[in-house]
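User: What would this chain look like folded?
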Amino acid sequence: MDENTPKLPDENNLYEHHAFTVDKGQTPLRIDKYLMNFVENATRNKIQAAAKDGSIFVNDVAVKANYKVKPFDKIRVLLAHPPFENLLVGEDIDIDVVYEDDDLLVVNKEAGIVVHPGHGNYSGTLINALIHRFDNLPNNSSERPGLVHRIDKDTSGLLVVAKTEQAMAYLSAQFANKTSEREYIALVWGNIEEEEGTIEGNIGRHPKNRLQNTVFFDEDEDKGKPAVTHYKVLERLGYVTLVSCKLETGRTHQIRVHMKHIGHTLFNDERYGGEKVLKGTTFTKYKQFVDNCFKVLPRQALHAKTLGFEHPTTGKFMQFESPIPDDMQQCIEKWRSYSKHQDI
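Assistant: Here's the prediction, encoded as structure tokens.
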């Protein structure tokens, strides 16, 4: 058994799949409904079945599906098998490698490809492809082979993978010390007034929806980790704006959360509400136009365009560029054409 695999510390020998501490402001709510908001790809039937099997524990006591959670309850979901993400299997999956040497490789990830296995995505990930292709990739601090950083499933673009322990340490330090370069292109709802700006706000897990992150500030800011995003307007397209976002930090969903925080949710970002018509008119034709844009780009409008870092062996600064993929480009062109013919 892998010593890093979590398990219940008693004779039951169960593995921990999820663990939550209930927020202090939580009102009484059935645990099956509560977990629906916190476990990705879960259904109420699956949660109720897990409770019936005695797999859901609150404060180390098994509970039924109708148990009502209270503030500060410690919830754990424990099953007889290890989490699937701990059982990595190599798979022969094509990946777009734009650069490779003995120390690292740079991958241009397609939208829709998950970077590492997790709940609901146990195969077909970038890591499955990497461990098929390479032996003995170094683990990062989260025990994920090769990964120096990650990008979301439905975000396209560049990321660097370390092939040696030295490369992992050297590259990870650059991301931690903010010396790497990362530029994203995003299409966001609304017309951003300023030509450029900086968003600073601590990012952490949303207290009521574990599938989202949010910005914490004032007396709550210690609930999140510091995050800084620099943005610049590239093109104004009426009810949407094309922007460049440069990251100082690399928090989960950082651009998605920060842009929503300033009132400019990413176009078609379903998790954060961008799949609704957030700006524009009430005309039926306009709604049809937006729906057509959603069909062309069935994901959030975010692309990791530029990646730069210092090579771990040569010390040379390397920079890579990835063109905006076709689905996002088509969506931008639709808005470009629409905005030219409207008095916005």
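Residues 1-11 have pLDDT under 50 and may be disordered. If you want, I can go into more detail on any region.
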